[in-house]
Design goal:
Protein name: Dihydroxy-acid dehydratase family protein
Structural class: alpha/beta
Bound molecules: FE2/S2 (inorganic) cluster, magnesium ion
Distance between the termini: 28 Å
Number of helices: 23
Pfam families: ILV_EDD_C, ILVD_EDD_N
Oligomer: single chain
Number of strands: 14
Organism: Roseobacter insulae
Keywords: Iron, Iron-sulfur, Metal-binding
Largest sheet: 8 strands, mixed
GO molecular function, one term: catalytic activity
């Protein structure tokens, strides 16, 4: 460790050891003594380390952090620090209504205020369940005190009658079995519960495994930290190491802005493609980047990530689960394979342990090539996203690698242009409207149709709903039509086989082009040119826009809570990270203020 700062530079000294103001020092100090901390722990020059605690009874995915934090504390104390556990607003993906996404910015906001306003020199970020990871990294970005993330780890593999059952994905399977009469309601429950056999977060490559892997890809976790399953002994051991390391990071003055550079984000986009990461990743990464003042947008995701091959064979896109990912080497093996193939753009960026990506992972390779493929033998050649634009929206993301062969054959093999299709728009205003109308024969939905979902973006359905991947009407399903093209201003959960165009920005409720689309319009989507347009004459569109304005804009449902209202007033677009729009003017605030 090369010490860059001394005791007198510790931020916490302003509270606990301020020679200019002994009275305030006494006042700040006395209440932290009242539960047993000693003056020695607070005043002798030990860094005060916050542990941002996202675990609670309300947050089962992250609850095991309550146990792991004991090892983090041991590490902090062993390295000469003092720890203070900091509660974080809970975000449980499967428990929060209407959506946990709404709470990402709330947890961000409150953690910024906490890290900034209290005597903390560094922080351990207890990440895990989907939105906890971006919320904590965003807060660390804004405050910019030394920070290291610690995953709670995925659950053990789920099993049912000899087959792996993965979080989330098993629910779709269970629905089919229930519909076919092969299981009853209790069987349904048993099957679904089998996918959650232990503490930890979702064991599939959903948003949680994606974001925890990307926290390591960014350099914000110790190498190898993301994939260790929650109950493994290594999880406790890396918790201890993480606690030790944050104390050194304080002395080295190694801050989020030193680690999460533009180069680190470019690496992370590549790694996201290689792991088959979630379409929620661009929203979260663009948000973290904005809070650091690092330029990053959806064009970068296409330019840097689209051609990167898929290496990780995890459900729902593949076969395996979290334990297999760990046994195959986790993120370091993926990064090592990418470096070996010359695909990682910046192997020399610094990471939380003070070493570079190449130092940490350059020699690592897959330890099970069924689960993590080498780049020479990938699962898919192009696993990233494309970024579409047109008169329907400025930006929307599509994961082209999930388009099935049968869908390609049906919609994309037009002899004139193999990657473009036209269709008739069927427009739904929110998920309730979809459920009402999708099976109504008078809608005349056929294979020529493109399904549109609007009113499902950050403002329209506060936080954005995961509803864009819509099923075809049941009468088409019975005919064997498994998917229709879907477009929308909401999000999509996990990886779905449906070829959806997601996160359309600006959303209808923000005056985006989708608001002007009418049922029956012809639309054209061109995956080569990355365009999506309604084929409506300009004068007609101008007339619709006038009418839309005159009628007071998009008719979104009422807010149900104060936060929903404030969120909608301040929130920005998905493609720009869905952050609170004026929050990114506050950067590096631990150094620039106080
Ligand atoms: Fe929490 Fe999936 S629901 S990680
Ligand atoms: Mg989700």
């Amino acid at each position: 460790m090369s010490k860059k700062i001394g005791i007198e530079d510790l931020r916490s000294r302003k509270w606990f050891m301020n020679p200019d103001n002994p009275e305030m020092t006494a006042l700040y100090l006395e209440r932290y003594l009242n539960y047993g901390l000693t003056r020695e722990e607070l005043q002798s020059g030990k860094p005060i380390i916050g542990i941002a605690q996202t675990g609670s009874d309300l947050s089962p995915c992250n609850r095991h952090h309550l146990e792991l934090t004991k090892r983090v504390r041991d590490g902090i104390i062993a390295a000469g620090g003092t720890c203070i556990e900091v509660p974080v607003h809970p975000i449980q993906e499967t428990g929060k209504r209407p959506t946990a996404m709404l709470d990402r910015n709330l947890a961000y906001l409150s953690l910024v205020e906490t890290l900034f306003g209290y005597p903390l020199d560094g922080v351990v970020l207890n990440i895990g369940c989907d939105k906890t990871t971006p919320a904590l990294l965003m807060a660390a970005a804004t405050v910019n005190i030394p920070a290291v993330a610690l995953s709670v780890g995925p659950m053990l593999n789920g099993w049912f009658r000899g087959e792996r059952t993965g979080s989330g994905t098993i629910v779709w399977k269970a629905r089919e079995l229930l519909a076919a009469g092969e299981i009853d309601d209790d069987g349904f429950m048993e099957l679904v519960a089998s996918s959650a056999p232990s503490v930890g977060y979702c064991n599939t490559m959903g948003t949680a495994t994606t974001m925890n892997s990307l926290a390591e890809a960014l350099g914000m976790q110790l190498p190898g930290s993301a994939a260790i399953p929650a109950p493994y002994r290594e999880r406790g051991q890396i918790s201890y190491e993480t606690g030790r390391r944050i104390v050194d990071m304080v002395w080295e003055d190694l801050r989020p802005s030193d680690i999460m550079t533009r180069e680190a984000f470019e690496n992370t986009i590549v790694i996201n493609s290689a792991i088959g990461g979630s379409t929620n990743a661009p929203i979260h990464l663009n948000a973290i980047a904005r809070h650091l003042g690092v330029p990053l947008d959806n064009n970068d995701w296409q330019a840097i990530g689209h051609d990167v091959p898929l290496l990780v064979n995890l459900q729902p896109a593949g076969e395996y689960l979290g334990e297999d990912y760990q046994h195959a080497g986790g993120v370091p093996a993926v990064v090592g394979e990418l470096i070996a193939a010359g695909l990682l753009p910046y192997p020399d960026v610094i990471t939380a342990n003070g070493k570079t990506m190449a130092d940490n992972c350059g020699d690592r390779r897959s330890e099970d090539t069924k689960v993590i493929k080498p780049a020479s033998d990938p699962l898919k050649p192009q696993a990233g996203f494309i970024n579409l634009t047109g008169n329907l929206f400025d930006s929307a993301i599509m994961k082209t690698s999930v388009i099935s062969d049968s869908f390609r054959a049906k919609y994309l093999s037009n002899p004139d242009d193999v990657n473009a299709f036209e269709g008739r728009a069927v427009v739904f205003d929110g998920p309730e409207d979809f459920h009402h109308r999708i099976d109504d024969p008078s809608e005349n939905i056929d294979e020529d149709c493109v399904l549109f979902m609007r009113g499902a973006g950050p403002k329209g359905y506060p936080g954005g709903a995961e509803v864009v991947n819509m099923r075809p009407p049941s009468y088409l399903l019975k005919k064997g039509v498994e998917a229709l093209p879907c477009v929308g201003d909401g999000r999509q959960s996990g990886t779905s086989g449906s070829p959806s165009i997601l996160n359309a920005s600006p959303e209808a409720a923000d005056g985006g082009g989708l608001a002007l689309l009418q049922n029956g319009d012809r639309v054209r989507i061109d995956l080569n040119k990355c365009t999506a347009d309604m084929l409506v004459p300009l004068e007609e569109l101008a007339e619709r826009a006038r009418k839309f304005e005159a009628e007071g804009g998009y008719d979104a449902p009422e807010s149900q809570s104060p936060w929903q209202q404030y969120f909608r007033e301040k929130v920005g677009r998905f493609d720009q990270g869905m952050i609170l729009e004026d929050a990114d003017k506050y950067q590096d605030i631990a150094r620039t203020s106080m």
